[in-house]
Amino acid sequence: MRPLPLNLRDTYGHVRMAIYSAGLDVEIRSADHLPNGMMGCYSERTRTILIDRRLPYVAKRCTLVHELVHWSHGDDRCGLHEMRTRAETARLLISPTEYALAERMYDGNVWRIADELEVTSGIINDYRTLLHDRVAA
Ligand SMILES: [Zn+2]
Questions:
Q1: How many domains does the chain have?
Q2: pLDDT tens across 27-48, in order?
Q3: Fewest C-beta atoms under 10 Å: which of 2, 52, 119, 136?
Q4: CA 108–ligand 1 middle distance (angstroms)
Q5: Which of 27, 72, 73, 84 is nearest to 51 (CA)?
Q6: The domain that contains 35 carries what CATH number?
Q7: Structure-derived torsion over alpha carbons of residues 102, 59, 56, 53, reported in degrees to the nearest 10
C-alpha cells in the first residue's frame, strides 16, 4: 500500500498542491465530463485521477480523497473495493472529535453536520454506517 503523507483534512486546492510537493506518483486532472454520473475516477495504468470540474468545491475535496485511497491501494479502477474505499475515505476526512461535537451541536442533522465538517452528506452517511455505528456497537 502506498503511503499518503498528506493532511487530507485540508482544502481541495491545498491537497492538490501537497500531492505535487510530496512528489507522489499520481497525476490529478480536471475533466469536463465523466461517464455514468461519476464524480471522479482513477486509473492504475496511467496513475491518473480525474475529477469532474463542475463539482462544488467540497465534493471535489471528498472525491479527491476517495480516488487517492484507490491510488494508495493500487486499485485498477473505481468500482473495485468500493465499500472499503468509502469507509477509509470517511475515516480520513472526519475527525471523531469534530464529528461528535457537530452531531451534538446540530442534533444529528446530516446536512448541517456535513456543512460544518466541509464534506458531502454522503461522507457523513458513510461515516455513520461504516465506522461510527460499528465502533459504538
Ligand atoms: Zn471508488
A1: 2
A2: 999 999 898 889 999 999 999 9
A3: 136
A4: 26
A5: 27
A6: 1.10.10.2910
A7: 160
